[in-house]
Amino acid sequence: MTQPTTRDRMISTAMRLFRREGYTATSWRRLVEEAGTPWGSAYHHFPGGKEELGVAAIALGTELVTGTIRRAFERHSDPADAIRWWFGKAAAALEREDFRGGCPVATVALEMAHGSDALTTACQEAFEAWRVVLTGFLRERGFEAARANRLAMSVMNNLEGGLLACRVRRGTTPLERAAEDVAVLLGA
Amino acid sequence: MTQPTTRDRMISTAMRLFRREGYTATSWRRLVEEAGTPWGSAYHHFPGGKEELGVAAIALGTELVTGTIRRAFERHSDPADAIRWWFGKAAAALEREDFRGGCPVATVALEMAHGSDALTTACQEAFEAWRVVLTGFLRERGFEAARANRLAMSVMNNLEGGLLACRVRRGTTPLERAAEDVAVLLGA
DNA sequence: GCTTCGCCAGGACGGTCGTCATAGTCAAGC
DNA sequence: GCTTGACTATGACGACCGTCCTGGCGAAGC
């Protein structure tokens, strides 16, 4: 049980703050305060500045979500159950942080559609990674390749749309609806 | 054909910039420059400051989308066709601005989940208004009340998720997928 | 003609931003 | 014990932020 390094704490705090308040609104000063990390070593660990921190934070978020997808499909043989479990986890996490959290990539992606190439690319890679992992599990469960690809995209649409709606509405209903809709699509 | 007032130009420019780059990243100075409106009269027209401008911009976005939904259902008797037309319009608009646009509310909603009560409320009202209008049209087309409510939520989930995915991916595929998925759900 | 008032021009104000430089600390290697 | 180099502390720097103020303009009302 090694304890997290300064760099790791900065990245995980950045991920949390970025998804909660966005990239632009999160300042280095507020970040180091929240992370309890030394302000002076920010540019030691991230010579590329805030942008490099942002890319690292998005990469961390990518991994975490990928892990959740894996767990969902390892625990449930029925794809619809896997999705329900996954979306339910996401809804619970969202509720736990009082509907201020959500997708670790969406907020940055919307802010930075124009502005930073590195961040835009990182967001693209995140979505792509999730789609690929999902497609793999769906094929493994017997779906034909083209269908698995289409379904993976449907799942992502429903997840992101559901997360956004839940956040605005301050309730978990949209994500539950999204999970049930995906279940219908999987069976259709 | 009266030409738009200074106030109106500020609001419509704000809507465009907010959805493109977010609320925090859009400054008054950049806004008046882009709108070609006088910088000195910003606080004359919006005594409540940037927040009041933000609320007005979201309200404008709410109306515009509501109008699009109405047009979609006036032109198409089949709900699935109405959705296809609507989502297609959204995808075309997104592509036209080089995938930097999207939903006029989503970006602000994600940034401001915490921070400004007025903006949060405005975003909630936007989503609620769209949902109500949609539910009305679906009922008009023969869907029973509870089912119409659920379907309206599904439509919003798919639209928002699709818009986000299209923006990240720089392509219109996810929105086309979303429209087809909604068509399946309408028929299921 | 004069006044009133909605609107515009331009800039001051205090604050915070990202960035970076400089000085200091401290444990590991010899 | 000394050196070295990775890490931390502190704050300066210029730029930009939202806000607000004062001064001026021009048309409508009397």
UniProtKB/TrEMBL annotation, chains A, B:
Keyword Phosphoprotein: no
Domain HTH tetR-type: 4-64
UniProt KW Mitochondrion keyword: no
Signal peptide: none
DNA-binding positions: 27-46
InterPro entries: Homeodomain-like_sf, HTH_TetR, Tet_transcr_reg_TetR-rel_C_sf, YxaF_TetR_C
Pfam families noted in UniProt: TetR_C_13_2, TetR_N
UniProt keyword list: DNA-binding, Transcription, Transcription regulation
Designated name of the protein: TetR/AcrR family transcriptional regulator
Organismal lineage: Bacteria, Bacillati, Actinomycetota, Actinomycetes, Pseudonocardiales
